[in-house]
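Q: I'm a student working through a structural biology exercise. My instructor gave each of us a protein and asked us to get a predicted structure, then write a short paragraph describing it. Mine is Uma2 family endonuclease. I'm not confident about reading structure output yet, so if you can add a plain explanation after the tokens, that would really help. Here is the sequence I was given:
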Amino acid sequence: MKTSQTNHTKGWTADNFLLLEETNTPCELINGEIIMSPSPLLLHQLVSGNLYDVLKIEARRTGGRAIYSPIDFHIDNRNVFQPDLIFVRKENLHALSLRGVTGVPDLVVEIMSPPNAHIDKNFKKKTYLDIGISEYWIVDPVRRVLEIFTPQSGPAQPKFRLVERGEISSTILSHLKLRFEDLFIDTEIE
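A: Happy to help. First, here is the predicted structure for Uma2 family endonuclease. I'll explain a few features afterward.
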């Protein structure tokens, strides 16, 4: 990976980050620091794929876009995140550009993995809600928990919290039909 020239005493900027070579290693700019992670666990990918299948059908039905990681989400000059899934409604497609997501999408989903759980549940959650994401979903595939946060519910208490079963309802995807347990179809690993 090529690194750009930067003054590390001041941290990385989005401009420095964008000078890096393309990589398959998950890499984000978080609060001016480059964070690299190992590849996601198989369970993470299976759950993510199941949810993407449903969101993609919803996107085709409504004219929106469902986007699967890796994709850069440009928050500001010190933060470029790579959420696991993003959904942008038709009326907000201007949030997308050739560089990735440069505006505010409607839904962001993070599937927790042990190395990134603290960041997803704290810094990213606060950042997403502060910039006006309509819904932020955190899926814990190991504990089988889904929490849905909105700007109205705030970062301390999820609007919805599902454990093991139940119908997932979304304030922005009103026709979404998804049972929580469907996130875990074909995820048993021997």
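A: Here are two points you could use in your paragraph. The helical segments are 14-18, 42-62, 117-131. The chain has three helices and twelve strands. It's a good idea to check both against the output above yourself.
Q: Great, thank you!
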